[in-house]
Amino acid sequence: MPLVTSTEMFKKAYDGGYAIGAFNVNNMEIVQGITEAAKDLNAPLILQVSKGARAYANHTYLMKLVEAAVIETGLPICLHLDHGDSFETCKSCIDGGFTSVMIDASSKPFAENIEITKKVVEYAHDHGVVVEAELGTLAGIEDEVQVSAEDSSYTRPEEVEEFVSKTGCDSLAIAIGTSHGAYKFKPGTKPQLRFDVLEEVSRRLPGFPIVLHGSSSVPQDFVARINKFGGNMPGAIGVPEDQLRKAASMSVCKINIDSDLRLAMTATIREYFAEHPADFDPRQYLKPARQAIKDMVAHKIVDVLGCDNKA
Ligand code: G3H
Ligand code: 13P
Ligand code: ZN
User: Fold this and answer.
1) Is 50 in the pocket of ligand 1 (CB under 6 A)?
2) pLDDT tens digits for 223-245?
3) Less packed terminus of the chain by CB within 10 Å, N or C?
């Protein structure tokens, strides 16, 4: 089976009240950990690549790793550009074999966001590729862009119909309180997503797939292991998984997870070195790290996304 777009996945997810996991990939072990979990659980999958990942690993290497995963798993896999920052980046991924791109012009004024998104949609649709766009801004860090909590803003539901009809985008990322990275909420506060905003967006866009970025849960056992073995991550807090499960049962069809995989990999490698200080064969520490990613993704598929046995 070749790489697929997310169209069919989202239709089934919307109707079935579950979501597809979109996991960021940067190297072979990450691709293998994610796709082995999805294969065991017969789950559809979105593998996403950021601008930073392309700069780190190179477009062709990532493309070939994902093609290898398609051959090895036989699963429907969509290859998606995460946070495309310009028409040129999106075009390069479309021309280079991706089946889905995100154009993230959410920090631009509304009219400009529409204009850039529309241009990407026209090119993408001409090439059989689907487009995710974003309205509202998330706090946190992605690539070299950092948005402070004060500059973040929830999506304005009254804008979504005009945005979707004028751009022709295939899915829409919205801001309802999630943010990128491991420090999503202030320690001592109760994390709470704005389900009222999600409900109003869904009411205005019936049947339309909604995307949640910044959806890592930052499991405290992994933070504790990182801190135990020489790390320093006090106050790392994520999105409660029961709230993600609720979003997945609503119109949210794609949930983006990256930080939790980083935490799993880093906690495992830190622990490995603490226990095996003399080892220096990368396979010795990357093997348990790959397994930790696999376990994390399996947990997300079954307990958060609900997309097991939906491939
Ligand atoms: O939303 C951002 C993703 O976590 C990707 O992060 O830009 O550091 O690759 P990155
Ligand atoms: P996290 O940092 O919460 O994993 O979010 C990842 C993301 O949104 C990628 O686009
Ligand atoms: Zn994101």
Assistant:
1) yes
2) 999 999 999 999 999 999 999 99
3) N
